[in-house]
Amino acid sequence: MSDTNSPQDWNALAERVARHVENYLGGLEAVSRGEAGPHTVPMLLLEVSQVILAGAQLGASQDVILPDNWEPEVGEDPDLDAVRQGLAERLLAIDEYVEVFDPYKDTEPTSYRLSDDLVDVASDLVHGLRHYQQDRPLEALWWWQYSYFNHWGNHAGAALRALHAVVANARLNVAEEVPAVR
Known InterPro entries for this protein (predicted)? Predict the structure, then answer.
């Protein structure tokens, strides 16, 4: 992004981020219903990776400042407990993991749950999406950027590392090949 963002630049960024958010939310809901079957973890890895791309775009942009320095009310956010429960059921064996929240400040690992992290990210994203859907792209960008730095970016990054570890371990821990008898 340039140092001076025009309304058109903000609108284009908001549209790109909104597409990532909609894809993430739809993918997360599908996985929580069991639609990914044996591909649950790789699909979640893909969904989280793509939404982190949106976060990186927000992080690389200048700060979004609302003209009146306040966020208009969007009403109650949807209840995502069914998604959280569905994910917890599908991730039962790997739901709990440990993470160092801030590698520059924390020295002790903290326990996390993938299902909680994935839904915490969704909750922050859906709030911004509601602004976007009410034709307030600047408010959506402000919320997505603020919550990326303050909350969902950390949870998405931690979930990405956990999901990556599961996929990498599954792929790298293959049985040793037995030489063919001739």
Answer: DUF5063 (IPR032025), DUF5063_sf (IPR038312)
Q: What is the pLDDT of residues 156-166, one digit of tens each?
A: 999 999 999 99
Residue 45, C-beta contacts closer than 8 angstroms, at least 6 positions apart? 160, 163, 164, 167
Helix (H) / strand (E) element for 110: namely: strand 110-113
Taking only the tens place, the pLDDT of each residue in 28-45 is 999 999 999 999 999 999
Q: Count H helices, E strands: the chain?
A: 6, 2
Distance CA 162, CA 84 (A): 17
SS3 assignment, position 112: strand
Query: What pTM does this model have?
Result: 0.86
| Beta carbons of 129 and 140 less than 8 angstroms apart | yes
Higher pLDDT: 172 or 84? It is 84
Closest residue by Cα to residue 25 from 144, 111, 150, 138:
144
